[in-house]
Each structure stands twice: as C-alpha cells, then as structure tokens.
Amino acid sequence: MLIRPVEERDLDQLHELAQLTQYGLTTLPKDRATFEKRVRQSLRAFEDLNDADPQGQLYLFVMEDMSSKKVVGTCGIVSKVGGFKPFYAFRVETEIQESHTLGSRHEHQVLHLIKNHDGPTEIGSLFLHPEFRGGGNGRVLSLSRFLFLAEYPQLFEQKVIAEMRGVVDEAGHSPFWEAFGVHFFGIDFPNADMLSLINKDFIEELIPRHPVYVDLLSPEAQASVANVHPNTIPARRLLESEGFAYDSLVDIFEAGPVLHSPLKDIRTVKQSRVLPVVSIESALGEDSLLAIVSAQDHQYFRASSGKIIETSHGLVLESQLANELQLAVGHSVRFAPLKASG
Ligand SMILES: CC(C)(COP(=O)(O)OP(=O)(O)OC[C@H]1O[C@@H](n2cnc3c(N)ncnc32)[C@H](O)[C@@H]1OP(=O)(O)O)[C@@H](O)C(=O)NCCC(=O)NCCSC(=O)CCC(=O)O
Ligand SMILES: NC(=[NH2+])NCCC[C@H](N)C(=O)O
User: Fold this and answer.
1) Exactly one of 229, 260, 298, 331 is catalytic; which is it?
2) Domain definitions of the chain by residue range
3) Residue with CA nearest ligand 1 atom 13
4) Residue nearest to atom 5 of ligand 2 (CA)
5) What's the pLDDT score for residue 86?
6) Ligand 1 nearest-atom number relative to CA 241
7) From ligand 2's centre to the CA of 62, what distance in Å?
8) Under 8 Å between Cβ of 88 and 203
C-alpha cells in the first residue's frame, strides 16, 4: 500500500469510492463536479510546498494498492478552517440550576454557537474501501498525514482538529437533525450536509440566534450528541491513540464530536525522526520495528508501512518497503513506530 498525493488520473476511482461512503462524510461528496473541484484544489496545494501560509489549502492523499494499482482509500488535510467564512460548531456547556424552595438541582447541557474566523488545521476525508478494512490499513492511512504535518509544519496551524462523522443512519436520517436542524433549515440532512461544502451562507442566514437546551430534544437526539457513526468508531480510536481528545465542541448538523490536539503533541509527529537509509534487505527478523515511513525528495511525498531496524548509522529497510517508496541507500526518510509502545 502506498499513500501519495491525489493525481488527476485518480478522479474516476475516487468518485467510485465516494459512492460507498453512505451519509455524513461531508468532504467526500458523491457529486462528481464537486469532487473534481477538490482534486484540482489539492493539485494546486501540492504544487508549492515551500512558502505557503496556512490559508485553507486542501491536501488530498490516496492509498494505492500497488499490486492492482487500485485506489482503495483516501484522507486529507485542510491547512486552516475559518477565514472570511467562519467555521461553525456548538460548544456543549453544562448549566447548573438550583432551587432552595423546591430543594432541587438540575444540570442542563446547553449548545452555544461558536463562529471561528481564525481556525485550526483540520484533518478529514478519511475513507477506506470496505474490503480493505480491519487489517491495519486504516491506521497507516490515518497516520500518514501526521508524517506530512511533521515534515511541513510551516504549512499548518499549531492546533489540529478532526470533525468526526456523527450518528446518521443508512437512509440519511440523523436524530439530531430531525430534532433540531430540520426546524430551522427546512431541508433534509443529506442536502444540508452537501450544501455546506459548496456554500455556507445558508447557515449564517438560518441558524438559530439563541442557545439550544439539549433536554428539549428527542432521547435519540440527546444520545447522539458527541457520538460517532458506527463505521467511524475505528477512525476515532485511531485519533485518540495519537493523543486527540474531545473537548466540548460538536458539529451543528449531526452533533458529531470535534477532536483536537496541538500539532506538536500528536504521537506520530512527536516520535517521528529523519534518518538516512543505510541498507535494504529482503527480509528483516524479530529485532525489527513495524514503522510508518515517508519520503519527500523533490517535494514528492509518499508514505507506507513496513519493517525497519535502526542502527547507529541510519535505517535498514525491508526491500518491499523500499520498493514501494522507491528508495535507495543514501535517501533520507521520516519514520515513527506504527503504534505507541507500551
Ligand atoms: C476509518 C477507517 C479508514 C479505519 O480503517 P480500518 O477500519 O481498517 O481500521 P482498523 O485498523 O481496523 O481499526 C482502527 C482502530 O480502531 C479499532 N477498532 C476497530 N473497530 C472498533 C470497535 N468497534 N470498537 C473499538 N475499537 C475499534 C482497532 O482496534 C484499531 O485500533 P488499533 O490500531 O489501535 O488496534 C475505516 O474504518 C473507514 O473507512 N470507515 C468509514 C469511513 C469513516 O467513517 N471515516 C471517518 C470519518 S471522520 C473523519 O474523516 C475525520 C477523522 C480523520 O480524518 O481522521
Ligand atoms: N458535519 C460533519 N460532522 N461532518 C462530518 C465530517 C466527517 C469527516 N470529517 C469528513 O471530512 O468528511
């Protein structure tokens, strides 16, 4: 498996992949024209990695199965959210009220709208073809972005967030949307989700101006606040194992949690180092380490996973990994253990 920047030739396969996403994966639209626009946006972003400030550039990656040459997964990074059009979220706050007269105490969860014009970096668009899940590919795909962040920190903000897909069923019904959003926006969730990627003006126009008491929503909607779609549990686990945490922000449409971490504290970023390749061998034994490895010569970033051994002079790579990344002795690579130790 090779992870590399998206190319124009991937469009057909990516578009096919997007048809498998079900509902709620906002940034992997099923509509081809919107997808094509995003691929072009990403091609522009990768063109110059030298002197860009984070201004909302989109970096889209694909995971390619090297044996079949098929695109089996994708993931992305937006260098900065917010800007002229804000990043919207609800902050879940707990309000406590007590009555001496009645001798009672109540805790209410209240949703407060926040609008951020100067937002963090956002990772997203994480999707793996169902046939390729469950064997560790998702971990490599998700973490590869962190080697890119470690390689080019100047392109990103110091804080990184991920908006996790919230609870939405197979027909596109979101309990939170049906209890809340539909009353204000008057359209269905899939439509609102799709429109929000194209033009967010309707959010500014129609979102309620006052805080929202969660107690007033249906029990299903209440239960969905800060919870994720069943197929998004692995994505959440992966980020949590890298140090990301939920801190009271949820999505305004389906109440999925926003996870966050300072860029420098992400486990893979923190543990990654750059060393030269000193040797390539056909098979490495017990003393080797399973690592995620990236190369970036001539600004061409690519990543994969495989066995390595660290020596005092540099790294020994297993030949399959070296072939996937087109590496020879003398090249430098960035690497980190695929999993946190202990
Ligand atoms: C997210 C991925 C790509 C993950 O791929 P895989 O399923 O192959 O991952 P995996 O390696 O099998 O599992 C990842 C980790 O989750 C754990 N895990 C798996 N199932 C679990 C479960 N039911 N409960 C608790 N933990 C579970 C595994 O042990 C593993 O952790 P260990 O490695 O520690 O053992 C995939 O599931 C997928 O395409 N899902 C559908 C799309 C989706 O919902 N994407 C996220 C949208 S939200 C988004 O895009 C923002 C987030 C982001 O960009 O990262
Ligand atoms: N409005 C939402 N919460 N959408 C979930 C987004 C899921 C995922 N982060 C994506 O990029 O597509």
Assistant:
1) 229
2) 2-90+114-267, 272-337
3) 234
4) 165
5) 95
6) 34
7) 18
8) yes
Q: Which residues of 99-133 are buried (b: 16+ CB within 10 A; e: fewer)?
A: eeeeeeeeeebebebeeeeebbbbbbbbbbbeebe
| Ligand 2 lining (C-beta closer than 6 Å) | 24-28, 124-125, 163, 165-166, 251, 253-254, 256
- Closest Cα to atom 37 of ligand 1: 234
Tokens representing 76 are 């992305």
What pLDDT sits at residue 84? Answer: 87
Phi first, then psi: give them for residue 28, nearest 5 degrees.
-120, 70
CATH fit for domain 272-337, picks 3.30.70.920, 2.70.70.10, 2.40.40.20, 3.40.50.1970: 2.40.40.20
Closest C-alpha to 57, from 122, 1, 113: 122
Ligand nearest to the CA of 132: 1
Residues with CB under 6 A from ligand 1: 25, 75, 123-128, 133-134, 136-139, 141-142, 162, 164-165, 229, 231-235, 237-239, 241
Burial of 134: CB neighbours in 10 Å, binned 0-12, 13-18, 19+: exposed
Ligand nearest to the CA of 63: 1
Nearest C-alpha to atom 20 of ligand 1 is from which residue?
A: 234
The pLDDT assigned to 200 comes to 93
Q: Give the ligand with the smallest distance to the CA of 21.
A: 1
- The pLDDT averaged over each successive group of 10 residues in the chain (342 residues) is 96 95 93 93 92 92 96 97 94 98 97 96 98 95 98 96 97 97 97 93 96 98 98 97 97 98 98 97 93 89 97 96 95 96 68
ipTM of the prediction? 0.97
Fold of 2-90+114-267: Aminopeptidase (3.40.630)
Instruction: Find out whether 66 and 132 touch, Cβ atoms under 8 Å.
Output: no
Residue 201, both tokens: 């003006």
Amino acid at position 158, single letter: Q
pLDDT of 342 reads 59
